[in-house]
Design goal:
This protein is α+β, with helices and mostly antiparallel strands and about 240 residues long. About 25% of the residues lie in helices and about 25% in strands.
């Protein structure tokens, strides 16, 4: 399959990330994962590309990814697979312009980036400090922050916002906080304070209640995140 990917796009970049091979061209095209009984090739934006040969066999419910599960002895139509790879590259489009440095207006301070690139924003309530945090998020993480904030506001119109411990917090007035996120070097961590009550339970964490998910570049499943946000907002929150 690796040979077919490179035949389909000789300019494809190969990397080893998250303990898996990753193929990229203007963004992630697909990743490979080895399981006990199957090898899975996951296309990061598979839901948005045509699959007339119906090669996708798993992750069919989501609105972003699609995957091909290959069992021992199975063959994949080489021509159809290469067409799928080319379509995925075309879907990624030209390279996005890199986010430029944040320009401060006269009298404003530029946020300091702490370890891992997390913005240092003073503790405060309201929309403004959260937007300041998002504006200071470096590179592609700023887009993730913008999309997360918009998604939360869309599904929880009366959400309460604040920045605490250099992280945006989202909650319901009088009921506490249900979510926060934080920037790390390679991902944005989205934490649900009552995560063990969500379905499905987010994959990160082993404590009594909190769970989280690490969002990497081109890795935000908005449909799944929206389902979690709506569930979390309906639960009793944490703190005040």
């Amino acid at each position: 399959m690796r040979a077919l990917i490179l035949e389909a796009d000789p300019e494809m970049t190969e990397e080893w990330k998250w303990r898996n091979p990753v193929w990229s061209h203007h963004g992630i095209v697909c990743t490979g994962e080895a399981y006990t009984k199957v090898v899975k090739l996951t296309f990061a934006r598979g839901a948005a590309i045509p699959d007339p040969s119906r090669l996708f066999t798993s992750s069919l419910e989501g609105q972003t990814r699609r995957a091909i599960d290959i069992h021992e002895g199975e063959k994949v139509d080489a021509r159809a697979f290469k067409a799928l790879v080319k379509a995925a590259v075309a879907r990624n489009g030209p390279p996005a312009r890199k986010a430029g440095p944040i320009q401060a207006r006269q009298g404003e301070k530029v946020a300091v980036l702490l370890s891992g690139g997390n913005p240092q924003i003073a503790k405060a309530d309201g929309d403004a400090p959260v937007l300041a945090y998002i504006a200071a998020m470096p590179g592609w993480k700023r887009d993730i922050g913008t999309r997360l904030d918009a998604l939360i506001v869309r599904h929880v119109p009366h959400v309460r916002k604040a920045v605490k411990w250099n992280s945006p917090f989202y909650g319901i007035e009088g009921r506490g906080w249900f979510l926060s996120f934080h920037v790390y070097t390679r991902y944005v961590k989205v934490a649900f304070f009552r995560g063990t009550s969500l379905r499905p339970v987010p994959p990160g964490g082993t404590g009594k209640e909190a769970r989280w998910i690490d969002i990497h570049e081109d890795d935000l499943d908005e449909a799944r995140m929206a389902a979690w946000v709506k569930q979390a907002a309906a639960l009793p929150g944490w703190g005040s």
